[in-house]
Amino acid sequence: MKPDHPIEVAIRALSRLPGIGRRTANRLAFHLLSLPREEVVALTHALDELKTRMQFCRRCEGLAEGELCEICADDSRDGGILCVVEQPRDVFVIEQTGCYHGYYHCLHGVLSPIHGVGPQELRIDSLLRRVEAGGVGEVIVATNPTHEGEATGAYLAQLLAARGIKVSRLARGIPVGGDLEYIDGLTLSRALEGRSPLA
């Protein structure tokens, strides 16, 4: 098949998505071809809306349709607790448990010197500004239980403890090497409730 053939172009585009190899991209491309045109148009419209309407919340760095996300705009939440997560998708995972009622802060990654990710590449400065503005008594570090997530948590604990902030970590029970988005709700609920101090 020529490189500019529509099927080949679609397969290459689909295979750039995370977790999608060439074989899966091939199946997806042919599946899309088999769908009615309206369904494919609806899918492309949904993707375009996603990219057009979503932005980062100016307070928590999570996803928002306006300046503030729905969570940051909710005054009924507990302003004394901040839950720090790696990615905006982790907020949705924790929210599904229904047991956390504070606010969030998204780092957009973890420290990874091997990949050239240092503190300046993460949203740590905006986290420190929020804490220094007052009102936050505890920060829950909810990074994934990987080496990078643990290193990021330890780094944050050091910075925040120096500012007199109680720092806790999600309780164990989440498997090392796992991602929050794959953890079941019960395990995540127990991890939140059984969090332990980092520093």
Q: What's the helix and strand layout?
A:
Elements: H1 6-15, H2 22-34, H3 37-53, E1 55-56, E2 63-64, E3 78-85, H4 88-95, E4 102-106, H5 124-132, E5 138-141, H6 147-161, E6 166-169, H7 185-193, E7 196-197
Parallel strand pairs: 3-4, 3-5, 5-6
Antiparallel strand pairs: 1-2, 6-7
Helix pairs in contact: 1-2
CATH-defined fold name of the largest domain: Dna Topoisomerase Vi A Subunit, Chain: A, domain 2
- Mean pLDDT score, rounded? 92
Helix content: 40-55%
Shape: elongated
The CATH class designation of the largest domain is Alpha Beta
Main β-sheet: number of strands, strand sense, barrel status? 5 strands, mixed
In the predicted model, the low-confidence regions spanning at least 5 consecutive residues are none
Q: How are the strands ordered across the major sheet? A: 4-3-5-6-7
What is the count of β-strands? 7
Strand content: 5-15%
In CATH, the architecture of the largest domain is 3-Layer(aba) Sandwich
Secondary-structure element order, as H and E? HHHEEEHEHEHEHE
Give the CA-CA distance, first to last residue: 58 Å
Counted by DSSP, the helix tally is 7
**Structural class by secondary-structure content:** alpha/beta
User: Into how many domains do the coordinates divide?
Assistant: 2
Report Rg. Answer: 20 Å
